[in-house]
UniProtKB/TrEMBL annotation:
Biased composition regions of type Acidic residues, renumbered to the chain: 273-295
The DUF6532 domain, residue ranges: 24-220
InterPro entries reported for this sequence: DUF6532
Region span, Disordered: 268-295
Protein name: DUF6532 domain-containing protein
Provenance organism: Dendrothele bispora (strain CBS 962.96)
A Pfam family the protein falls into: DUF6532
Length: 295
């Protein structure tokens, strides 16, 4: 280890093998934060850290001990990934809802109008914002999922640790909603205001919203559990298909009715002779012509 006492511990303090194991464990921990619980309590954090390190050692075929310093590096990825997620959410808000970074009066009015509309009674969560239809189906959720969890191709956290993302959990959706609400507040004046150090995304200020959204998502699930489960599975499969790492599924062009007609048409045929009504489409080649071609 190249660690210097008094400095903040980092993965790069270790040799290449140790660094690879720590980074793998950190990726596991980040995946759990996004896919399982964005605000794990202390006991959960320690449990996740140990499992993450064990998983990384098993993958590397090694047997190291996760000491306090390494554990602190891994757990530190919790707040790190929350900050990373905010960047993706802001990008998604601009892409989906067309928030402007301009400071003109026109842009300010547009942003303020969007903020008021989207913030009203969780309107941002609906596919149809005006009529509040299609809860949790707004395209922003799919975009955030792709940006945050599928951005590194086959090495993406949602592929390597797919068990935490397939299907997309209610906890993940609640996390996205919490991040969206927080990011929307930065446009409340009509001009984007970057939060100060004391206004960052913290558990203390946001866990209440997270729990509220999780309750709303559970109520949504209770309305039609089968639909919601299939919807969450489809969210994952659609995002994964965009990566191009899986074979594209091509639907059959022979439908049931066409297949039934084929069966009737072929019922009395053996394939050993020409059909009675088709005749022979191929003219026989004369032997003399074949001899000339051979010359």
């Amino acid at each position: 280890s190249n660690y210097t006492p008094g400095n903040k511990a980092k993965a790069r303090d270790y040799d290449s093998e140790g660094q690879a194991i720590i980074l793998r464990a950190a990726a596991y921990y980040e995946a759990k934060v996004i896919g399982v619980d964005c605000f794990p309590d202390r006991a959960m954090q320690i449990g996740w850290t140990n499992k993450a390190f064990q998983d990384a050692c098993r993958t590397a075929g090694k047997n190291y001990e996760c000491d306090m310093r390494v554990g602190k590096i891994i757990r530190g990825r919790g707040s790190r990934v929350q900050g990373e997620m905010l960047t993706y959410v802001r990008d998604a808000l601009i892409s989906i809802h067309d928030f402007s970074s301009d400071t003109s009066k026109k842009a300010k009015r547009q942003n303020q109008k969007l903020y008021d509309k989207l913030s009203d009674r969780m309107a941002f969560a609906y596919r149809d914002i005006d009529n509040r239809r299609g809860f949790a189906e707004n395209p922003i959720f799919q975009l955030i999922l792709r940006l945050a969890c599928f951005g590194k191709g086959p090495e993406s956290r949602s592929v390597v640790f797919s068990r935490f993302f397939n299907p997309v959990s209610l906890e993940t959706l609640a996390f996205f909603m919490t991040l969206i609400r927080y990011s929307l507040e930065q446009y409340s004046t009509g001009i984007y205001i970057k939060p100060g150090k004391n206004d960052g995304f913290t558990e203390q200020q946001n866990k209440g919203f997270y729990k509220k959204y999780l309750d709303e998502l559970q109520s949504w699930t209770d309305c039609n559990p089968v639909f919601v489960e299939n919807f969450r599975k489809r969210m994952y499969s659609h995002a994964r298909e965009k990566l191009g790492i899986d074979p594209t599924r091509v639907e059959s062009l022979i439908t049931g009715s066409i297949k039934a007609n084929m069966r009737i048409e072929l019922a009395d045929r053996t394939g050993e002779t020409d059909t009675e009504d088709e005749g022979n489409d191929f003219e026989p080649v004369a032997q003399d012509d074949m001899d000339q071609e051979d010359d």
